[in-house]
Specification:
The protein is mostly beta strands. It contains 3 helices and 12 strands, in the order H-H-E-E-E-E-E-E-H-E-E-E-E-E-E. The two termini are 19 Å apart.
Length: 215
């Protein structure tokens, strides 16, 4: 259980984290949609949404876990499977209630942080981008955008589904060369809420009985 957030944030949607730039084919309509979503997120003071994270093989998801996500500019808080991750803009705090353990580390750029903006801006880093068309996704008439890597990075393709009218993400799918599939389905958006000043802070006093490891 204690490794779930590490696997979740670093093991899926690693869109080009170690790629070098190469020739890309970027569809203009897809680019405009992705840029509109990115600009919409950046314009908000904060964002909240619920999500379901699914994994499986082939095209079939066999396991799902619900989670929630808060973000404010470059800070975020993620909760899934009774575990929590906080990024205060400087360090990442992985908190496992089950193991009573906290791991603190600085992002090193070797993996992807769980931020919606990461996904919708990664098309700039070594991916061919194609607008596929409209598709009904969880009741939303979504725009479907397909990303395929220009170089081998272990990923076969990534599908991004966008609510074009609201400029919001609806769903993300990643298919690996190892036949794995990872999916994030997003719902219940809320924006510009009044959040506590401590929302994205880690208070050691709350975890006196935990093993705290700083890497």
């Amino acid at each position: 259980m204690k490794n779930i957030l590490k696997k979740f944030t670093l093991g899926i949607f690693i869109l080009g984290a170690s790629l070098t730039l190469s020739a890309q084919k970027i569809d203009a309509k897809a680019k405009n949609l992705l840029d509109a979503v990115a600009n919409n997120y950046k314009s908000k003071n904060n964002v909240y949404f619920k999500f379901v994270y699914g994994t499986g093989n082939g095209r079939t998801v066999t396991k799902t876990e619900p989670g929630i996500f808060y973000s404010a500019k470059d800070k975020y808080k993620l909760k899934i499977m009774g575990t929590e991750q906080i990024f205060d803009g400087n360090k990442v705090y992985n908190i496992s209630a089950e193991d009573q353990e906290v791991t603190i580390a600085r992002p090193n750029g070797s993996g992807q942080m769980f931020s919606p903006l990461s996904y919708i801006e990664e098309y700039k880093k070594g991916y061919n981008v194609k607008y596929v068309g409209k598709l009904n996704v969880n009741g939303v008439n979504a725009d479907h955008i397909k990303l395929t890597p220009t170089k081998n990075n272990g990923i076969k393709e990534v599908n991004i589904f966008i609510n074009g009218a609201r400029k919001q993400l609806v769903k993300l799918e990643q298919f690996g060369n190892d036949n794995s599939v990872s999916v994030i389905a997003i719902s219940n958006y809320q924006e510009n809420q009044k959040l506590s000043n401590s929302m994205f802070s880690f208070d050691r006093n709350l975890y006196k009985n935990y093993l705290i490891t700083e890497l």
